[in-house]
Structure formats: structure tokens, C-alpha cells
Amino acid sequence: MSDICKYEFHPELNILFKNYYGPISIEDIFSSWEYAINNDIIMSDIKGFILDFRKATFDFKIERFIEIVDFYRSNLDTFQGKKIALISTNPSDLVVPILFNAKDKGYVSKSFSTQEASIEWLLNTHL
Q1: How far apart are CA 39 and CA 23, in angstroms?
Q2: pLDDT tens digit string along 45-97?
Q3: Of 30, 76, 84, 124, which has the fewest beta carbons less than 10 angstroms from its beta carbon?
Q4: Number of continuous H segments (helices) and E segments (strands) in the chain
Q5: Is the pLDDT of residue 1 over 60?
Q6: Domain boundaries, the chain
């Protein structure tokens, strides 16, 4: 995988962390998920995902967020019943996770500004 994303699986939490770096395009998001799916990085019994965008910026028009929603919906075999926490502290990038959350279907997502809060939500709440 390129330098835009690093994967960290934490077996004690059963959570996959995806840490993004630099400018991120829609295609980067898709290709990073496809890489994870095709290389068995995602365990079938995983509780969820923490997508950390604090060291990244979104490099696409905000209107394209719906393409991300469509990608998740077309891959429900991976995301069905999972929780997706999105971490961002950049005010201009917070809009994408909020819009994404409004379109959840088959999975649940929520925006956070800290990793600690995202882990707590992921481990302590039900779908």
C-alpha cells in the first residue's frame, strides 16, 4: 500500500485502525479499502474500524462524499453490522464524516476528535 494509509490491527480490541497521511482522494480511500479486503487484513469477526484522518486532508470536492457511501454499501459483506469511527480535528474536513454518517445503512459511523473517544464508542455501544 502507498504512503497514504497505514493499517494497525489491535487483537486485544479486535479493531482495525487505518491511519491516513497527506492529501487523500476518493480513489485513495477506495484503493486502501480494496487493498485491505483483497489482502485479508480485515478479520471476519472484527468489531469495527477507526479511520484516523488527523494527519491527512481531504483532496476532493465535498459533493463526492456520496461515492464513499456507495462504496460502503456495495461492500456490505465487509461492512455489514460494523461500526466505523472517523477521527478528524480539521474543521474543514469534519463535514465529510458528518455527511457520511447521515447516509449510514447496514453499518454505523460516528465522528470523533480523539482516538480514546472513538475506541470507547466502538467497544461500549451496540449497533
Answers
A1: 24
A2: 899 999 999 999 889 888 888 898 899 999 999 999 899 999 998 877 677 76
A3: 124
A4: 5, 5
A5: no
A6: 5-124
